[in-house]
Design a protein that fits this description.
The complex is a heterodimer of chains A (294) and B (317). Chain A is α/β, with parallel strands linked by helices. Chain A has one domain: 3-Layer(aba) Sandwich (Rossmann fold), CATH 3.40.50.970. In chain A, 39% of the residues lie in helices and 13% in strands. In chain A, α1 packs across α3. The longest helix of chain A has 26 residues. The termini of chain A are close together. Chain B has 317 residues and is α/β, with parallel strands linked by helices. Chain B folds into 2 domains: 155 residues, Thiamin diphosphate (ThDP)-binding fold, Pyr/PP domains (Rossmann fold), CATH 3.40.50; 124 residues, Rossmann fold, CATH 3.40.50.920. In chain B, 38% of the residues lie in helices and 19% in strands. Chain B has 13 helices and 12 strands. Chain B is globular. Classes of the chains: A alpha/beta (294), B alpha/beta (317).
Chain lengths: 294, 317
């Protein structure tokens, strides 16, 4: 089966369409993000299905966040912007985004979680340098992002350190050490996106350890807070632009998402944290996305 | 006599002048770790994260990834206690952080075992890409700082609180992994490091009065060069290791591994801290744990069957 067959050979350039000079390119941008996010979902599903394991729900919930960053808001790889996937178990999403962007060979799609693969179960920079920071044990990514943001500030570099964390991950103490430090330092060149899918290994966030009121907690630590629908590319895009424009405080985007989200009304494996992706479920999901598995 | 942490504070500020990529991440212990000298001279490159070592380690890893050479300093016990963060954010990222762990061994004294760096080596030795350095005196501290700013590998610099005399002259040149023979003998080779080097030299002097010619090796950086350490072992029938650290996981295991890999029988003995440690004055503690010159001499003498120690101060494997 080859879901990649449905891809355009190359991603169109951002201005590669006919339009009047005074016309907003926003509709085009949103359409492009949408199409590429669907590609990412399809690759995530194929990767995890072929690997026989992987956190499919957690990977799907953050596809839209990663897609907005990777395909619309972040500079090119190696260009200064940094992306830290603190919720490292969503590694397939990052690998898929790299494949869709053309930075990672699509031939590696079947190597996820296999011996000697560059596509480790959690992002490992020592094996794949398209990973900015090795992550996996939760709670550590934001601290490293802050170090990178500090370095940029010391150098007078205007690029941004993005960090994507889970919401259950906010139960880790180190996250709040980092939140405290960033707020006190006024590190405004860091943007934290919280994939707020309200679900973790042993159940819902509220069952395990509630974080309510999350926005107020960040505000108390002197962060600029935005609450958005994490599956709305428009909302996420606006929030990221707002976050970068806010030059006084670090910014957090609390992105409300659904675990296993495929599209409106369509959630995989009932939103489970990690469930087995049977061939039947996999095929149904691809069909929903408009892809055909052979 | 000064402590290696004091020499470190001055040496760090000195390399800070010539290396503008050197930054300090401090965890509310600038006066104790002596990064305060750097802070005074380079306030813009001194980042205070507060009493939050895990975050400090992560911030340092991020700075290192961006091309800086961060020194994150705290008591060795606290810093290496954040092992998961060191493993992942520093180790697996191959981030060029210098972890500076001060107050190694029993010397913190009256504060007791919750502050004592007695298992830091055991943890740091497990990481395949991390270099461990522990200077024996001021000369070696300065040499090590020059070495550390000359590359960007993850490193653990282990420093002492107690004042130590100089065991090197200014001609000494530190070479990573190379065992440094500070006294040449023939009957027994004694490996040690850091604050114990001068102590073992004093013990060797005392043993000389009893006809024992001891070679004393300052194993100041790990992993030790296997061939060089093995050659030293080959020249002796008796090998002994002394360290101000738990008996498991540190220098004893490092040297023991080299001895075993050689496959030629030698007699092997060791001495370190066999329990959690306890509160007390440093002098009382080193005496109690047979890690002062007299105690070390008695342990080596017992190993060589010259005598039995006066008292049994806890059994060790």
């Amino acid at each position: 089966m080859n879901v990649m067959a449905g891809f355009a050979d190359t991603i169109p350039g951002e201005r590669d369409h006919a339009r009047m000079d005074d016309e907003s390119d926003l509709p085009y941008r949103l359409a492009r993000i949408g199409r590429l996010a669907t590609d990412v979902r399809a690759v995530v599903l194929e990767m995890i299905h072929r690997a026989g394991s992987g956190h499919v729900g957690s990977s799907l919930s953050c596809v839209d966040l990663v897609s907005v960053l990777k395909f619309d808001q972040m500079g090119p790889a190696g260009g200064g912007d940094v992306f830290v996937l603190s919720k490292g178990h969503a590694a397939p999403t990052w690998y898929a985004a790299l494949m869709v962007s053309g930075e990672l060979d699509r031939g590696e799609i079947g190597t996820l979680r296999r011996i000697d693969s560059r596509l480790q179960g959690h992002p490992d920079r020592s094996r794949l340098d398209l990973v900015d920071v090795s992550t996996g044990a939760l709670g550590q990514g934001l601290s490293v992002a802050l170090g990178r943001a500090q370095a940029k500030r010391l150098r007078g570099d205007r690029s941004t350190a993005y960090c994507l964390s889970g919401d259950g991950e906010l139960q880790e103490g180190q996250m709040w050490e980092a939140v405290m430090y960033a707020g006190a330092s006024g590190l405004s060149n860091v943007v934290l996106l919280v994939d707020h899918n309200r679900s973790q290994n042993d159940g819902t966030l509220d069952e395990v350890l509630p974080l309510h009121p999350l926005a107020e907690r960040f505000r108390a630590f002197h962060w600029h807070v935005q609450d958005v629908n994490g599956h709305s590319h428009l909302a996420v895009r606006d929030a990221v632009i707002n976050a970068r424009a806010h030059r006084l405080q670090p910014s957090v985007i609390i992105a409300h998402t659904r675990k296993g989200y495929l599209g409106p009304g369509e959630v995989l494996l009932n939103g489970a944290h990690s469930g087995t992706l049977t061939t039947e479920v996999y095929r149904d999901a691809l069909a929903y996305l408009g892809r055909v598995s052979s | 006599m000064r402590a290696t942490r004091d020499w470190f504070g001055d040496a760090l500020a000195a390399v800070g002048t010539s290396h503008d990529k050197v930054v300090v991440v401090n965890c509310d212990l600038a006066s104790a770790t002596k990064t305060s000298v750097f802070k005074e001279r380079f306030p813009d490159r001194f980042l205070e994260v507060g009493i939050a070592e895990a975050n400090g380690i992560g911030v340092a890893a991020g700075l290192a990834q961006e091309g800086f050479r961060p020194f994150v300093a705290s008591f060795g016990h606290f810093l290496t206690g954040k092992f998961l963060e060191i493993f992942q954010s520093v180790g697996l990222n191959d981030a060029g952080v210098v972890l500076v762990g001060t107050h190694a061994g029993l010397a913190i004294g009256k504060d007791g075992p919750t502050q004592m760096g007695l298992r830091d080596l055991a943890l740091m030795r497990t990481l395949p890409n991390l270099e461990i350095l522990q200077p024996a005196d001021g000369v070696e501290t300065r040499q090590m700082l020059a070495y550390l700013v000359g590359h960007d590998r993850p490193s653990y610099l282990r420093l002492c609180r107690q004042p130590q005399r100089e065991v090197h002259d200014e001609h000494y040149r530190f070479r990573f992994g190379q065992p440094d023979v500070v006294r040449d003998g023939a009957d027994v080779v004694v490996f040690t490091m850091g604050g114990m080097v001068a102590v073992v030299l004093d013990a060797a002097e005392a043993l000389a009065g009893r006809g024992v010619r001891a070679t004393v090796v300052n194993a100041s950086s790990l992993p030790l060069d296997t061939a060089a350490a093995g050659d030293l072992v080959a020249r002796h029938e008796h090998v002994f290791v002394v360290e101000d650290h738990f008996v498991k996981g540190g220098l004893i295991d490092e040297v023991g591994r080299i001895v075993l890999h050689r496959g030629r029988p030698v007699r092997f003995g060791s001495w370190g801290v066999g329990d959690y440690g306890q509160a007390g004055s440093p002098a009382d503690l080193y005496r109690r744990y047979d890690l002062d010159a007299e105690g070390v001499a008695s342990r080596i003498a017992a190993f060589l069957h010259l005598s039995t120690p006066d008292t049994v101060k806890g059994s060790q494997p």
